[in-house]
Design brief:
The structure holds 2 protein chains of 2 kinds.
Chain A: H1 2-13, H2 32-52, H3 59-90, H4 93-98, H5 102-118, H6 122-142, E1 147-151, E2 159-163
Antiparallel strand pairs in A: 1-2
Helix pairs in contact in A: 2-3, 2-6, 3-5, 5-6
Chain B: E1 10-14, E2 24-29, E3 33-43, E4 47-51, H1 60-63, E5 65-66, E6 71-79
Antiparallel strand pairs in B: 1-6, 2-3, 2-6, 3-4, 4-5
Classes of the chains: A mainly alpha, B mainly beta.
Amino acid sequence: MLFKILSKLDSRCHFSRVSAHCDIPCKIYDPISAQLAVLTMIRLVDLLNGLADKSELSLNDKAQFNRLINEKEIHGQKVKEEIRIIWGDYFKQPQLELFPEIHDLVHSIMLKTSAAKQHVDKAVTLALLADVNRFAEVFWATKGVEVYSAVSPYPPSQTLIYPKL
Amino acid sequence: MMPLIHHGAFLIIRPALLYHINDVVQVAHPYYGAIVKRIVWGDNTTGFYLAGDSNASLSVEQMGCISSNQILGKVCWIINPK
């Protein structure tokens, strides 16, 4: 009753508006961004190792080296950010009860991403990919979506977990 | 601010001399504009930190420290849609 009266008053007087939902609860979460960022890190490590094979680096090689390292840092940050957002915003009590391993898995991803940023080491980036793929498996399982693994059709041609949509 | 404040609710907001932890207040935020949030920490001298009741809300860190002169009033009455 009171709400109806206020609604009618509002249509005439136009009360001022405030927002209580300043964050958009968009519910759009997908681990693919993190997976692609890891693939990029692996690709960058491959390119860096290509430079390491050269006996002497030209000016362009040195510029390329700086660029590759910088991009590896950026994509490492992206992996961390994407995983943290899904873990922090999407995973709630029902998902945590189904997959209590998620906290350890996310922590492992953070540590491995740091290691992959600190070193030019393909083994570390591959171990990171395995963790992020597992994260994707868990994520899709909480949504009841089946997954399959396939080799990415572009370099560095590594296996990714994809949802069967 | 779900479940306390539903979308489209009417709020009666009144300025106060002092604000306290747990008060739901209207804030003129420099980035997010006119918003309603709950005080979770702070006082009138150090400034306030606010958070939403909903899990989907912005974090305390995202909103930053709010000074008392940015708080426009305290929510005294909530009329939610039926």
